[in-house]
Write a structure and sequence with these properties.
Blueprint lengths: L4 H10 L3 H12 L12 H24 L3 E7 L9 E6 L3 H19 L4 E2 L6 E5 L3 E6 L1 H7 L1 H4 L4 E2 L14
Subunit structure: Interacts with chloroplast ribosomal protein uL14c (rpl14).
Family: Belongs to the Iojap/RsfS family.
Protein name: Protein Iojap, chloroplastic
Length: 171
């Protein structure tokens, strides 16, 4: 059975102990086991996380340099299986979304050898998927509507080592 994101969110918000909820589901439906073909020591995972964190912070810095607002880097690896970090940023116009995305693409390709999949034209929500880092660039209304920070509320927020300005007042 497929659950919509809204139903899962409501279900988890009403649960007092999420671990108990998942244990009950596992007992009822069986455990899901994910195996990699390669056997890697856990220290290799930590090294990968550190390298990926460095890339994520560099991406957030580029967004800041292009005047994105309210930039968040979330460590989502414990919550999802498809990525390690989300970067969420607010742009204030479609041309700004394009400028931020273009600079992030350049950084990924030229300095890290990473080519993103995802949107190629500016929309009200542009997504760049670098695999271990997924970048979300929103216009303010869409960011408020989708509210990824709340949906991934259990993700660890990473402190950024640069000035992260709040969004300017839009009256």
């Amino acid at each position: 059975r497929v659950f919509s994101s809204f139903n899962v969110r409501a279900f988890l918000q009403n649960a007092e102990d999420v671990d108990e909820v998942f244990d009950d589901l596992f007992n009822k439906y069986g455990k899901v086991v994910f195996r990699r073909n390669e056997q890697r020591p856990s220290i290799a995972e930590v090294d990968d996380d550190a390298e990926t964190l460095s890339f994520a912070v560099a991406v957030a810095k580029v967004a800041s340099d292009v005047k994105a607002g309210d930039i968040k880097v979330l460590f989502v690896k414990p919550l999802v299986y498809w990525t390690r970090f989300f970067i969420i940023a607010t742009a204030f116009s479609r041309p700004q979304i394009d400028a931020i995305a273009s600079r992030i693409r350049d950084l990924g390709e030229k300095q890290y050898g990473k080519v993103p999949s995802g949107d190629t034209k500016p929309n009200s929500w542009t997504l760049l998927d670098f695999g271990d880092v997924v970048v979300h660039i929103f216009l303010p209304e869409q960011r408020d509507y989708y509210n990824l920070e709340e949906f991934y509320g259990n993700a660890k927020s990473i402190d950024l080592p640069f000035e992260n300005q709040p969004p300017p007042f839009r009256g």
